[in-house]
Amino acid sequence: MNDIEKRIVKTAIELFQKHGYNDTSINEICSVCGVTKGTFYYHFN
Q: Which residues carry the record's DNA-binding region feature (predicted)?
């Protein structure tokens, strides 16, 4: 896993813990990480 993927996963886990899985969006993960949705989907299908 590269650095961007690690940052996305770490951020997603933190947001899941804070808001729950169902209340966390891809947009929120991307915003907090500072990546675009295109970058997110490039690394995670």
A: 25-44
